[in-house]
Write a structure and sequence with these properties.
Pfam families: ABC_tran (PF00005). About 35% of the residues lie in helices and about 25% in strands. The protein binds adenosine-5'-triphosphate and magnesium ion (MG).
Length: about 250
């Protein structure tokens, strides 16, 4: 059975056609990178898969179930971190995790496991308002992982992180991959991240899929690596270290 089936979805915001007929299916344990330039429709697509936005047309099934009829079931099997996750500034890391844990009836034991996994031990009593960007990203990942999700959605989880923090986050995701219990959809502007973590690359632009497959199958003489493939397809460069590569 597929973990995720996306069938010909469309989504417009007034006259902006953000997603224009996207379809794919993802198997259990697959790690998939969704790539595309700014405004390509990645976040809109992911938020529809997460049940946060409804497609104007088309269908999305997670483990064969639609959001319309199975919201409660589906919330319990997914984990997500948004492109810009905002937590209450006045709660500590520990309190934030306890709050989100309570939605899944999880206790302090799981919260402590997550704090250890995300390397936030020394900051657990700090208020969210005092955290650095990287620490906030780790907290967002921790919240996403609390309920041991079968399907994990991460929208630009490492944007703005220093190389060291990025590697730390990759390490956590690689552990998850090795456990083979989680399916991951990740959006990123970092080519290296997609290459090192994901088995499959989907490149979208202007709301449509341009390429979908294993990286080695997508490359050829004109596109010898993911960077070149991306530029050839979209006419734009991927971002390296947060800056546009010209
Ligand atoms: N709530 C909204 N109202 C109006 N337009 C929107 C809304 N959300 C997204 N859009 C538009 O839809 C298009 C796709 O946006 P989306 O956020 O999905 O892009 P993205 O691929 O995630 O880009 P980025 O790499 O910058 O995060 C953009 O043109 C954007 O301006
Ligand atoms: Mg986005």
């Amino acid at each position: 059975m597929y973990q995720i089936e996306v069938k010909d979805i469309y989504k417009s915001f007034k006259d902006v056609h953000a997603v224009r007929g996207i379809s794919f299916a993802i198997r259990p344990g697959e790690f998939v990178a969704l790539l595309g330039p700014n405004g390509a429709g990645k976040t809109t697509t992911v938020e529809m898969m997460e049940g946060l936005k409804n497609p104007d047309s088309g269908e999305i099934l997670l483990q064969g179930k639609s959001w319309l009829k199975n919201e409660k079931d589906l919330r319990s099997i997914i984990g997500l971190s948004l492109q810009e996750t905002r937590f209450s500034e006045k709660l500590t890391i520990f309190e934030t995790l306890c709050l989100f844990g309570s939605f899944f009836r999880l206790g302090e034991k799981r919260v402590n496991e997550i704090i250890e996994l995300t390397g936030l031990e020394s900051k657990q009593k700090s208020m969210v308002g005092t955290l650095s960007g990287g620490q906030r990203q780790r907290l967002a990942l921790g919240v996403a992982l609390l309920n041991t999700p079968q399907i994990l959605f991460l929208d630009e989880p490492t944007t703005g992180l220093d190389p060291h923090s990025r590697l730390d986050l990759w390490k956590i995701l690689k552990q998850l991959k090795d456990s083979e219990k989680t399916t991951l959809i990740l959006t990123t502007h970092y080519m290296e991240e997609a290459e090192s973590l994901c088995d499959r690359i989907i490149i979208i632009d202007e709301g449509k899929i341009l390429k979908d497959g294993k990286l080695e199958d997508l490359l050829d003489e004109d596109s010898r690596n993911l960077d070149e493939l991306f530029i050839n397809l979209t006419g734009k460069a991927l971002r390296e270290n947060g800056n546009v590569v010209l």
